[in-house]
Design brief:
By secondary structure, the chain is α+β, with helices and mostly antiparallel strands. The protein is built from eleven helices and twelve strands. It has three domains: 135 residues, no CATH class; 143 residues, no CATH class; 70 residues. Helices cover 49% and strands 19% of the residues.
Length: 394
């Protein structure tokens, strides 16, 4: 660390600050608008709506606070300490108490890690590394990520399970990295195809559903060399996360769009049991300590995958003859989302439904039926016991 005139103020560029503040203000405006919708339309007697309105109003205020924090935030460099100053006050970390620096959020932010619990970590944007004064001040502070990576690599190179010599182990690691890199984009493309045209090609569901079990098999086959990505990022072993990411996203979305379940309680219970079992296996096969943010993300993907596989199997493998319930159409409407449009018919009571309500239909049925027409609601028992329905002509 070079000598210089202190204190030194380090901030993000004016352009980046302006851009970030504008995003937060825009988010606050949108959230505030959503919060005000019940008031604008006079619907203030709905308790659930009031709760959501309050949540969106708080989120809007939080976005405004984040905008103000971004506008005033700065790092203050002293000869023997560093401090962050913002809306929540000033946090100081003595240089002598810094154990090292880490990269977090996929390299978008950096964290100075204290050597004891009497001080809190100090986090800042990785964009500040363009500042020469900050780079000079950080000189000599250990890079914890690099140290962990090299330690993990050295441990791997000494592990005789992966080869007789260091060269063989290095070659095996490089070969595994090439395999994992080669399957990332094909899996992404297959997942996209499942979401777009999966209903017309059920075989795509089966192919995509096979990837997470394949990832588990590869982990056992490679003796842990291929990992699930739950550990710290500073691990030289290739990760099989892509084999869970796209199947989880695509199958979960496809099941949500393409299946109409009636029995949600058993569906959620079965999904939870299977997802918890899978997560227990993944944690057992992962080295500790794990990154709990990665565990949470994987749990969401595994839950979506399990629900998608079970729901699609329940409907597509159901070979029993469905029950048929005629129902008169009272009206129709549609909802447009980011990636799809959902079509609904409002119909008279039918089967297990004792009140008139909406049923989700395909676009072709939506366009063919009008108020006063009669449609048939077909209810299947489900291969897994989760009842489902479909709507068509009688």
């Amino acid at each position: 660390m070079a000598e210089g005139a202190y204190p030194i103020i380090v901030r993000e560029t004016a352009g980046l600050r302006l851009y970030t503040v504008a995003l937060f203000v825009l988010a606050a405006a949108m959230l505030g608008f959503v919060a005000g919708v019940p008031i604008f339309f006079g619907k203030t007697d709905d308790r659930v709506g009031d709760v959501f309105a309050a949540i969106f109003a708080l989120a809007s205020l939080a976005s405004l606070a984040a905008a103000y924090h971004t506008a005033i935030w700065r790092l203050v460099l002293e000869k023997d300490s560093i401090a962050s100053s913002g809306i929540f006050g000033r946090r100081t970390l003595p240089r002598s108490q810094i154990a090292g620096i880490r990269s977090i959020l996929n390299g978008r932010r950096c964290r100075l890690v204290p050597s004891d619990r009497t001080h809190k970590p100090l986090t800042f944007s990785a964009a500040l590394f363009k500042n020469e004064a900050l780079l000079d001040w950080l000189e000599g502070i250990p890079d914890l990520d690099a140290a962990e990576y090299h330690a993990a690599l050295a441990a791997y190179e000494q592990d005789s399970r992966y080869g007789a010599t260091v060269e063989e182990r290095q070659a095996r690691l490089a070969w595994m990295e090439r395999i994992v890199s080669a399957v990332d984009w094909p899996i992404f493309g297959l997942g996209l195809a499942v979401v777009v045209v999966g209903q017309s090609y059920p075989l795509l569901f089966a192919v995509l559903a096979a990837f997470p079990p394949l990832a588990i098999a590869l982990n056992f086959w490679s003796r842990g060399l291929l990992r699930f990505g739950l550990e710290r990022a500073n691990d030289p072993r290739p990760t099989l996360g892509a084999l869970f990411f796209m199947p989880g996203m695509a199958l979960g979305v496809s099941a949500g769009i393409g299946t109409n379940l009636l029995d949600w309680r058993p569906a959620l219970a079965d999904t939870a049991v299977l997802a918890l079992s899978v997560m227990a296996l993944l944690l057992w096969r992962s080295r500790h300590p794990v990154r709990w943010d990665q565990v949470f993300l994987m749990a969401v993907l595994v839950a979506a995958y399990c629900f998608g596989v079970l729901a699609l199997a329940d409907v597509t493998l159901d070979t029993a003859s469905p029950q048929r319930f005629p129902a008169r159409v009272l009206g129709k409407h549609f909802e447009t989302g980011r990636s799809n449009t959902r079509y609904y018919l409002t119909v008279d009571p039918w089967g297990p439904m004792t009140k008139s309500g909406d049923v989700r239909v395909s676009e072709s049925v939506y366009r063919a039926e009008n108020s006063g027409d009669t449609v048939c609601v077909f209810v299947g028992p489900g291969q897994l016991g989760w009842r489902w329905y479909g709507v068509g002509k009688c």
